[in-house]
Structure formats: C-alpha cells, structure tokens
Amino acid sequence: MVSGSGICVKRVVVDARHHMLGRLASIIAKELLNGQRVVVVRCEEICISGGLVRQKMKYLRFLRKRMNTKPSHGPIHFRAPSKILWRTIRGNKNWKLNSGKCIMRKNCMVVDSSVCALVVCLFEFLMIPHKTKRGEAALARLKVFEGVPPPYDKTKRMVIPDALKVLRLQPGHKYCLLGQLSSEVGWNHYDTIKELEKKRKERAQLVYERKKQLAKLRVKAEKTAEEKLGQANKNIQKPGKGYNPYRKTLPNRTLLVDKSGHGNFSSIQSAIDSIPSENKNWVCIHVRAGTYWEKVKIPYNKPYIILKGEGKRRTKIVWDDHFSTAQSPTFASLADNIVVRSISFVNSYNFPHYNNPRLPAVAAMITGDKTAFYQCGFAGVQDTLWDEAGRHYFKRCTIQGAVDFIFGSGQSIYEGCSIQVLEGGFITAQGRTNPNDANGFVFKGCNVFGNSSVYLGRPWRGYSRVLFYKSNFSNIVDPKGWNAWDFVGHENHITFAEYGNFGPGADTSRRSINVTGKWDKPLNSVMIARSDWIYEQSKVEKELTHMIFPYVIKAYGGILDVRLGDVIHGMVIKLGLVLDVFVGNALVGMYGKYGVVDKAMKVFGFMPETNLVSWNSMICVFSEEKKTEREKETQLIMTNLFVVHCPLIPMLLTYSFSAIENFFGSFDRAVVN
C-alpha cells in the first residue's frame, strides 16, 4: 500500500475488519499525506483494545465535554463507526503548550515544552494537519463506510498487516468492536448493517460456489483435452517453434535466509556459497526482513540465482568499505542470469551523513549479463551503483548518491526509478569507449529529485552515451544540464540526449551540450533484450513462486508461531496462489502443526480440487489434535475416493489396537470389493 512517489492514481480499498483502531488510523493518515486515495469498509468491525464496559465509560466521558464559553454549541461528537475512524485519522490539531505545561492532562510529568511536543508527535495525536491545504486535500482522498457498499463489494480488498489484531494484540487481551461501542453510545444502525452484511455474504458465497464449479470443470476439460491430444501434446515440448529453454531449468530447491536462525542459513553469502559451481537450475534465495551486515558476492560461475527480499525498506544489506572502487562494493554480482527483487544495498561509509572524507564507496557492482533488479534500493554518496558491463534492467528502484553515483559501461535501462540527489555533484558517468560499443544508459519515466544542485552527467570515457526520456526533473537540475569534464572540444563524440521530459528542471534552452542529437537505439527493453531474456526470467520467477511456496510454508510451520503463519497465509493470498493444490496442502499441514484445526479445515474447504496428499494432511491434523472421530470420518471418505492408496501411518498414531483391527478389516474389504 505504500505509495512512495506520492502520485497514486489507483484507489486502495482496505477491509478494516479485525484491525486495531490506532495503528490503522496512523498508517492510513501517512498514506493520505503521501497522495494515496483510500477507501475503508467494514468500519463496524474495527477492534479497540480493552473491554466494552471500559471503552463505553471512556467514550461517555468524551461525549459529556462542552465548550466553556458556549456550552450549547459544544464539539461535534460522532457515534457512527465510520465517522469515529474518520475523526481518529484526522486527529486533533489544537494541542498547545503553555508555560511549560501540557494541557493534555492535569498531572503531566513532562515539564519541558520541547520534550512534550516530541511526546505528542510520537503518540500521533496530530494525524493530519487538516487546517492546512495539504491536510484538507489529504482528507478529501479518504472515504469510510460501514459494511461493504457497492461498488466496493466487487473490488479487491486489502488488509494492513501492521495493524491486524492477530499480530498486534496479545492473546487473551480484552478487546471490543467499534460497532458494539457505537451501538452502546447512540448509534442505531448496527443491526441493519449486520443484516445487510449477511445478505451480501450470501450473494458472495453463491458467486464463489459458481467460480469453484467452473474451476473444477475447467480442470476436468483440460485433462480431457490433454488425453485426446496425446502425441501432439508431446511434440509441443520438443525443440522448435515456441521451445522455451528455461523450461528445463526449473528450480529443484529454495533457500531461506533468516538472521534470527529460523531458516536454512543465517547469512546471505553462506546461502550463495552452498550453490554448486556451474549451476544450471534456477535457485531462489528468500531473504527474510532484517539488516544483514555483510559483503555479498555472487561469483561468475554461479548463474541462475533469484535473490528475493521482503521489501527494500525491510530487507537491507549494509557494509562500510571504501577507498578502492573494485574492493568496496557491498554487493557484487559477477554471474549471468541473476534476478534481484525487493532488497536494498547500502554502503554506510558516508551514508547518510558521517562527514568522512569523500571517497569511492560502492553499494553495488554488476558485471554479469542478463541481470534484473526490481523494486530495489541503492544507497551511498560517491560511486553508489557501478553498472560495469552487460545487459541490465532496473525497474522501480531507488538510487541515492551525490557524485557519479550511476557509473560504468553497462547497457542498461532504468525504468520508473527514483533518483535522489543527496549533495551537489553528477548523476551519471557513463564509460563507452568507442562508437561501435552498444552500451549506454537509458532513463525512462524516472523521477529526479533531491536537496542540492546537480548535473545530469559527465563523460567517464570519450564516447559516453546517456538518455533521459519522459522523466520528471525537479528544480535541482542545473540549467547547463551536462558537463564535458575532460573531453571539452570533443562533444561531438558524446551522446547526451533528452526527450519528452517535464518538470521545473526540464528546460533545455541553456544546456551546455546539444541534447537534441539523434539516438539510434530503441527506447524500450529491446535495447537490452534481443533474446527476450527479461520476459523469460519473469516467467521462471512466477513458476519459482508457485513451486517454492510449499517449502517456505513448511519452514514457517516449523517455527510454531501462529502469527507468522497468518503472515505467510496473507502473502499466499496476495500472490494469487490460494487455489493451488500444492500450496493449499502446505497450508493445511502448517496449521496442523500450530494446532489450529478450524483454519486448516477452512483452507481445505476453499481448495477447488484435492488429491491424496490433501486428505492425508487433514488426517494428520486430526491425529495431532487427538480428534479420532473426525479422523475416522475423513478416512471413510478417502476409502471411497482412493481405495488402494489410503494413508495407513497417520491413522496408527491415534487409533487403539481394536480400532486398528477394525480399520484393517474395512480396508481389506474395500480392496476385495
């Protein structure tokens, strides 16, 4: 949901059910101020910590507040859940500090006004500055509703994990629903909303059952078609038209890195070292959230690696080496066919501001071919990103620096990236050495912003080539735009081009180098992907996600923390894998280890199709919880579906000797029949 850029066209619909009121309000307030449009539904099911009686007494005291000067015109007190949420998000702008004391309460222990202001900010009493233009515009982007009114009943609804009750409220702690509290203090529509929600859920259930039946029919039709195609279907897999070489390199494993010790490895480098040399199969390294203080290097003889974090703000690789450009990189990728997603690489020598002497301190160095970065971060001051050689693709990345912080001789496209200038200097230093080289930097749809005046680039070598296309330039871009550096008088060999840019710094009338020259390369991914490797890598990554998630879920099941299980379940739903039979089986097994039978049964019921492993997993769930009768019922159903392949071992875990005899007798009769 985090917008990042602050320019958000799409409206996000948040299902507020079982979210904590304070955390939900603070997160939504920040997103509104960032430009995100938000709709919140089912406000009546928001949770408040503390029992209903206690919360009712507190709210009744709040309702009795009046203005001293004119009590008949007291403050407006909302009673509807949606309005209470709206007021919580808006906050109170009128906190004041007077003579070193705070009017928040009479016996405040904080006497220093500056400290008190800090306390007010920390507790977020001031959510949105609603009396300013910015705050007024932010509130206009918010809509709140009880229930789920049209058209949002047919819109994808999202949750905010940081505000969920199951993750934020301790088990056993008292809580109440906002709808219950509102009905107790004067809101008269609680029963009406519940009735409307009941009817909506009945309609949704009918739609879901229809989709479920269609999914089963589709699977059945596909199997029938495959049987009829026969040999023709096999011929499709042979080399020829439509042959995909990436199909034979599907992954045989995934590696989980967790610095807390709950994964296969506690460091990223140890996971990379475990991959055999001259690797030919795609291997996914899933890096859990955290700051990893280490230098990471992917050797040239270890290709086909997907390095995947949990968000560039949550998964970071940090080191502080400097002085030598070649030896200082925090992250170095020398191999071909590498995909990196949702990780930040930081060289902390001078980042953010340590006042050290300005020296080369590389955050990432890329020399391998066919390397892609998605939603990654690169942070440093001088020489942040060394785009040395090969074809590279950067999408929606954030690059921070000051001097030559994107440099090298790579053939690269930067699409939709945020380029943040920390101090005055140069953004690019491209190193094309002769006119026949295909390399160059293309910045397409990027956003250039920062704190100090900056040049778009200077030539590192004599035939440097850089293009900015349809990008947003803030006023920090120097009117001269470019600097010829050591190649004054040879500007005709340099290609610095600008096309279709906009913003305060996009005026090209005062550029020191002609930026309207011909650019002889295509402006899309064809420039770097003649064999369409970007598309093939994205397909492999989707297949990886489909195949590795059962193993990730099993790893989470071994931690025995139901809150982490709910988080991974949410990720499954977000990625659209909830209907996959293998992922469903893993979820059933995970909830079985947690001892949460109801959720295991719910996942089992949602699966559009089941196999022997699915039923076997449910029997294991009942066995671990000693629910013998339910286990027998499940086993009898399985006997009719899978006569020969009934799972014997899980049944022996809980059955008595007499039950075992009865079971084997019924099993023998089923086989004979």
TrEMBL record:
<keyword id="KW-1133">Transmembrane helix</keyword>
<dbReference type="Pfam" id="PF00572">
    <property type="entry name" value="Ribosomal_L13"/>
</dbReference>
<dbReference type="InterPro" id="IPR011990">
    <property type="entry name" value="TPR-like_helical_dom_sf"/>
</dbReference>
<keyword id="KW-0964">Secreted</keyword>
<keyword id="KW-0689">Ribosomal protein</keyword>
<dbReference type="GO" id="GO:0015934">
    <property type="term" value="C:large ribosomal subunit"/>
</dbReference>
<keyword id="KW-0378">Hydrolase</keyword>
<keyword id="KW-0063">Aspartyl esterase</keyword>
<keyword id="KW-0325">Glycoprotein</keyword>
<feature type="repeat" description="PPR">
    <location>
        <begin position="580"/>
        <end position="614"/>
    </location>
</feature>
<feature type="domain" description="Pectinesterase catalytic">
    <location>
        <begin position="256"/>
        <end position="511"/>
    </location>
</feature>
<comment type="similarity">
    <text>Belongs to the pectinesterase family.</text>
</comment>
<dbReference type="GO" id="GO:0003735">
    <property type="term" value="F:structural constituent of ribosome"/>
</dbReference>
<feature type="transmembrane region" description="Helical">
    <location>
        <begin position="636"/>
        <end position="657"/>
    </location>
</feature>
<dbReference type="InterPro" id="IPR000070">
    <property type="entry name" value="Pectinesterase_cat"/>
</dbReference>
<comment type="function">
    <text>Acts in the modification of cell walls via demethylesterification of cell wall pectin.</text>
</comment>
<dbReference type="InterPro" id="IPR033131">
    <property type="entry name" value="Pectinesterase_Asp_AS"/>
</dbReference>
<keyword id="KW-0812">Transmembrane</keyword>
<comment type="similarity">
    <text>Belongs to the universal ribosomal protein uL13 family.</text>
</comment>
<feature type="active site">
    <location>
        <position position="404"/>
    </location>
</feature>
<keyword id="KW-0472">Membrane</keyword>
<dbReference type="GO" id="GO:0045490">
    <property type="term" value="P:pectin catabolic process"/>
</dbReference>
<keyword id="KW-0134">Cell wall</keyword>
<dbReference type="InterPro" id="IPR011050">
    <property type="entry name" value="Pectin_lyase_fold/virulence"/>
</dbReference>
<dbReference type="InterPro" id="IPR036899">
    <property type="entry name" value="Ribosomal_uL13_sf"/>
</dbReference>
<keyword id="KW-0677">Repeat</keyword>
<dbReference type="GO" id="GO:0042545">
    <property type="term" value="P:cell wall modification"/>
</dbReference>
<feature type="transmembrane region" description="Helical">
    <location>
        <begin position="571"/>
        <end position="592"/>
    </location>
</feature>
<dbReference type="GO" id="GO:0006412">
    <property type="term" value="P:translation"/>
</dbReference>
<protein>
    <recommendedName>
        <fullName>Pectinesterase</fullName>
        <ecNumber>3.1.1.11</ecNumber>
    </recommendedName>
</protein>
<keyword id="KW-0687">Ribonucleoprotein</keyword>
<dbReference type="InterPro" id="IPR005755">
    <property type="entry name" value="Ribosomal_uL13_euk/arc"/>
</dbReference>
<dbReference type="Pfam" id="PF01095">
    <property type="entry name" value="Pectinesterase"/>
</dbReference>
<dbReference type="InterPro" id="IPR002885">
    <property type="entry name" value="PPR_rpt"/>
</dbReference>
<dbReference type="InterPro" id="IPR012334">
    <property type="entry name" value="Pectin_lyas_fold"/>
</dbReference>
<comment type="pathway">
    <text>Glycan metabolism; pectin degradation; 2-dehydro-3-deoxy-D-gluconate from pectin: step 1/5.</text>
</comment>
<dbReference type="InterPro" id="IPR005822">
    <property type="entry name" value="Ribosomal_uL13"/>
</dbReference>
<dbReference type="GO" id="GO:0030599">
    <property type="term" value="F:pectinesterase activity"/>
</dbReference>
